[in-house]
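User: Batch of two.

Assistant: Item 1 of 2:
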Amino acid sequence: MRCPIQFAIVCTATASLWAQPVAVRQMEGEVRGFLVLRAEDGTPVADGDSLQTTRNGHVVYHSVYRFKDGSLQDETTVFSQNGHFRVLSDHLVQKGPTFKHPTDLSIDAVTGRVTVIYTDEKGDQKTESKHMELPPDLANGIVPVVLKNLAPGNESVTESMLVASPKPMLIKLQIHAEGEDSFTTGEASRKATRYNVHVDIGGVKGVVANVIGKEPPDTIVWILQGECPTFVRAEGATFEGGPIWRTELVSPVFPKNVSAAATREKK
């Protein structure tokens, strides 16, 4: 499967099994953040930007990761928040040496048109386009938003996601809270809820995956609860067969000689 979870992740599901989209408890608005993608030993592998804007009553979330080797992961998700969160469209691009199978996945959840442009084992570019009946709980690009809006006491949720394998497939994410972990900001101690995101590969493909040991690893997402819940960190694979990487928020760092005092002295 080619898709980040946090962004990921297979079974075909009937309409009777589809869950309802998560109700809006915290409205999304204009946000700009800086991200870093690290290996398990803490080594940075990519710098990221997170931009969220509003347009015509809809929310547009755009995340970009630029890897040290020149690779790129770029995703734009448009969703509505009229009572419930609904993904309207999602466009994910993964290309460069980091990704064994460069992929361009476009989802129009309004019309149901899904297009995947990928590179096969021979290096040839292929295109798969089809119409799919997409469920209202589609979570592509908004998993952290879903987690921030779970009602108090609701520690589990099942959401749908569309992935490229390389053909587009609809899958289920089983998400549940595992507990709390402590972290610090400055000298202040805080606690974040730890959520486990499990990929449920149903049917024959799921059985085969369990037998041959190719079931995707779980992803862990940390959310700070309270008056204004917010994403803190995530750990998981960003593509099929990829390593476990950690996504974190980072703060701007200025050179030591840049300060308000130094600026005043130059005047």
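Item 2 of 2:
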Amino acid sequence: MAIEVNATARSMQGKGASRRLRHAAKVPGVVYGGGQDAQSIEVDHKEIKQHLKMEAFHASILTLNLAGQKQQVLLRDYQMHPWRLDVMHVDFQRVAADRKIHMKVPLHFLNQETAPGVKTGGGTVSHIFSEIEISCLPADLPEYIEVDIGEMQAGQSLHISDLKLPQGVESVQLRGGDDLVVVTIQVPRVEAVAEEVPAAAAPVAAPAPEKKPAGGDKK
């Protein structure tokens, strides 16, 4: 998916200038990397807010249109207002076609409802990770990675090494020796607690009165 962000150069610096930008429905930002100096920019608040709602915007090569010059960038960071849904700042990083990039890419889990461990085993799918960190050239960057759990049984887990990564893409964690669990189907708990009902206590018979010998007491 091709996503383009329109930006203009920003000359004013400081907190006061940033506040004035935000009052004008603009968001201050910066673009850096790619062997060039960092440059302060501003983008339209409404536009960047809509972009941030898109999953692909966070894990795709973006086209930054800056003063008519287009360059390939990645979204690297953004800040939101503590309680308002306002974007406060945004950072982009330039990318070079011949240099590998590190990105966190979302995982899309498939066939969760039809997995035997869920459908017939009564298990529950537990997502340990919703994204993984990958390394690849910009041209090989996937928007997401599919994780098919359609054959999983209750009690089974999938690790990073079980994922089918696209050509040219490698897991940063796996390269570092961490073959982490990505998803598991938890075995259902069967809590059968037998309630012990105490038997009713049998009534205790009163002792029979002592019989006195016939004729009364002898003195």
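Residues 4-94 form a domain with the Ribosomal Protein L25; Chain P fold (CATH 2.40.240.10).
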